[in-house]
Amino acid sequence: MAWDKRFNVTGLCRPNLHYMVDIAGKIDVIIRDYIERGAYFVINRARQYGKTTTLGLLARRLSGQYLVFRASLEGSESFFVSHKTMAGGICRLLYNQLNRLKSVYADLFAQPIDDQFPMDDLSERITRLCEQSEQPIVLMIDEVDRASDYLIFASFLGMLRKKNLDRLDLGMRSTFHNVILAGVHDIKNLKARIRPDSEHAYNSPWNIAASFDVDMSFSVEEIDGMLRDYEADHQTGMDTYGLAQVIRGQTSGYPFLVSALCKRLDEVTHDWTAAGLHEAIAHLMCATNTLFDDIIKNLQTHEGFRRVIESMLIHGNRITYMPVEPAQNLGLMFGILRHVGNEARISNSIFEQYIFNYFIALEASKALIPSSETRPSIYVRDGRLDMRLVIERFAGFTKSERRPRREKLLEDDWRYLFLSYIRPIINGTGHYAEEPETRDNTRADIIVFYGKEEFVIELKLWRGQKQEEDAYNQLAGYLESRGQSRGYLVSFCGLRNPPQRGEWIKYGEYMIYEEIVPCSSGDGG
Fold this sequence. Notes:
- By secondary structure, the chain is an alpha/beta fold.
- The chain folds into three domains: 2-7 and 216-287; 24-194, P-loop containing nucleotide triphosphate hydrolases (Rossmann fold); 370-518, no CATH class.
- It is 46% helix and 15% strand.
- It has 18 helices and 15 strands.
- Strand 10 (430-434) and strand 11 form a beta hairpin.
- Helix 3 (83-100) packs parallel to helix 4 (118-132), helix 9 (255-269) crosses helix 10 and helix 14 (349-367) packs across helix 17.
- The longest helix is centred in the N-terminal third of the chain and has 21 residues, at 150-170.
């Protein structure tokens, strides 16, 4: 029954069991631009990006008009022992699926593979199948990242490539109409991962593949459709489109993140509002899952990629989009980076916060903030966070910590220090988001979400009273865009005798709490 449906974040999603985004439009594009044209292509997208579900829905749509074979290399390590085991394994997969269909063509793959020329034998059997079949045949191979020996897998791909070129030259239906590979790595990066020292790592056996350009992220409209399906069953009274906009804004439509947040709202929070969503995000920030594990593993494994992320997040640098640059290429492939115009950015707000938290955790020992200073009980009363008190005590802590190592607090430091201070206070109940469109080397707007409230905070370096007026105006504009009446301005000042603040200021229609934080034990500037 409909009310038994759930949001799913593990394995294949099924429309009769799970609330799902309707990707029929994407399937239409794949059929029109790739299947009908006989294209061979690779769906290489980040982990938990809906690749397996997409293949399943595509296979269902093609059923009847096409004969579809689906295979997965997950759990198929024995395929890669030798060319014979590779050819024999594929032969067995084809036999099993044909046999289940009670097809007369199953006998083509019933006999053991030839010992001396296994790939040639497999190739000939495929030719006979495709020539005799009344329907064009589509081969889908999922989890190609599991190929543990690239050279053996490459021989199989090379055989398919040759058959496809022969088909195009001779106009014969002697091979598969389409071959679709799916995995995180494209063929180029798959080679580098398995055999990084191979001289022929750049000679691709799969240069026949069409570029797969379908956007698999979820749009606001697609998320709204899923929420409307849920609302029809549960009558929560939610504003489906408004909530879809917030979900898209936080996740950039990353399929796993969309489903994980909705799953939390459905099973635990039961508050289908923006406030409920932010509570779900706070929980997600503290959760363990394979996607977040992969993000950290990739940061730890790939030093060049880590430096790019640090440059963007920690130093506030803007990175020109250049997919041929190896570190950016990895970031795009992992789904951690995306490009907006000519600029590379972190894919979504949740990844940005999670990675920043990771960097903060690594730097925690340098910040030397005592746990007694950041106990949530100091700042939370009746479930409400006192942000003024947080900022006030942060300023006091910074003033008392006049350590020689920080003669002059650098712009990198103050962002680290403030977020290091606030993170344990809100951790598990709230979360924060930095606004990438305002990040530069002189200021950064931060929104802290806690309970049903949000706090807009601007961090900046003190550059005199005139620039302070500009900061008020900028913050007021941002408060207007967020529908907030109160905001917070934290200015870091390197003067020996900084101006005194720590007060509420009325600026037009808005109240702004300003604190000037001393950040140098020297003469300053």
